[in-house]
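Field guide to reading this record: the first block holds the primary sequence, the second block holds the structure written as discrete tokens, and the final block holds curator observations. Each block starts with its own label. This record concerns histidine kinase, catalogued under organism Rhodococcus sovatensis.

BLOCK 1 — SEQUENCE
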Amino acid sequence: MAVIVCAGGVLTIINERTNSDEATRREVIAVAASIANEPSTPISIQSENPSAVLQPETERIRMITGVDFIVVMAPDRTRFTHTTVDLIGKPFSGNIDRALAGETFTETYVGSLGPSIRSVTPVTDVNGDIVGLVSAGVTRDKISDQFVKGLPLIVGVVVAAFIVAAIGSVALSRRLRRQTLGMAPDELRSMYEHHDAVLHSISEGLLVFGKNGTAEIVNDEARRLLDLPDGPVRRADLPESLQHMSSGGELHLTDTRVLVVNQDPVMWEGRTLGDVLTIRDRTELQGMIGELDSVRSFAESLRSQAHESANRLHAVITMVELGRPQEAVEFATADLELSQHLIDRLMGSVNEPALAALLLGKVSQAAEQGVELTITEDTALDHAGIVTPRELVTLVGNLIDNAIDASKESEQPWVEVTVRDSTSELVVRVSDSGPGMPAEVLETALTRGYSTKSGSRGLGLALVTQVVARYRGTLTSEVTYGSVLTAKIPTEHTA
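BLOCK 2 — STRUCTURE
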């Protein structure tokens, strides 16, 4: 600011000096022309004693106008008037050729009074003949004196401008530092470079929304997880379940991913500036959890069966010791035949070991909870088509778990499961003795957004919907002999 103000002051001084010279030129031309155009001037020049008539008049005009000299001369340079009386009658020193040609001009010339800006103009009679010349001028010393007298004002303005600029600079600096939290420009640049590198390298999605609903920061991972296009991102561009979420952590599902989303307000000095959303991908983890649940369920089933088998073995041994071997054989083989029949049927009809193990485990799990789970006779799976074993376990396991929970609301809980495939589609039908789920209730239950604070209840149906939607299948609900949920998936992928 100091450089700008000083440069402005120097330019003002230079401009003022130039203007001063230009104003002087205009002034001396006006004075010389006014005398030359006066009708009495050519008459006086042609009189017997021109000096006696013109000298008093030119001195009076000189005093009024403030010029340093007014010279009226003959075409041969002989002076009729001059500020210095001793120079009257002597030749004029300076250029007069252009004036003799009828032109009025100005020049800077070193004359009898020193360097001056002077004008020369011709004097003509009634016939248009040049009978004399008039020259008026102001010395450089006088011009400099007038210029110096004006310098204090210019310097004062420059100083005042510098003070105002200094105060403005300090005020602006303080305001900028308040807005940048006291950080200097190099610190801001360094922080931006570091933060930008971090934002694009972290494995979590990050979105920062301002009060206007437009994201001010969106990193690459957030665009990938939410399938966001390039360019500005608004709240309306997010999946519907994320558009109106509250603060805290929530589990959200998109068509292809399971996401953990946290939203927290950005606070500064008690004011809310916006919201920060962090997004973590739990798709693979959720699939592994589903498989782990199935394995755990199967393991629990084996444990309970082992415990039950030990009890039955003790009973059989005791019956033999009591001398009742026939009753012991009948007791030992009754339940074994039933369980072995189910195992043989599933292993023969279901050509997917993970699904067969899941169904066997769910039968035992349901029995432990007092629910009768039946695998229908028409259950048969040659090949699941485009559905992977993990997705098949997710689909069937979550439908069965929901059915078991729902069936407990009846006096005699039961669940019936059918899994079969054909040349065109895979069908999974799960019925239960629960109150049922009309279509409009199913639509609500499939909402993709559940609070992590209340556990994962309700997430099962959303995971089922995710698998079905991924392969453009259908999920329907009806209430007939019980609550029936049917998922149908084409065995071949269609565009």
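BLOCK 3 — OBSERVATIONS
Residues 205 and 222 are 4 Å apart (CA to CA).
Residues 2-146 form a domain with the Beta-Lactamase fold (CATH 3.30.450.20).
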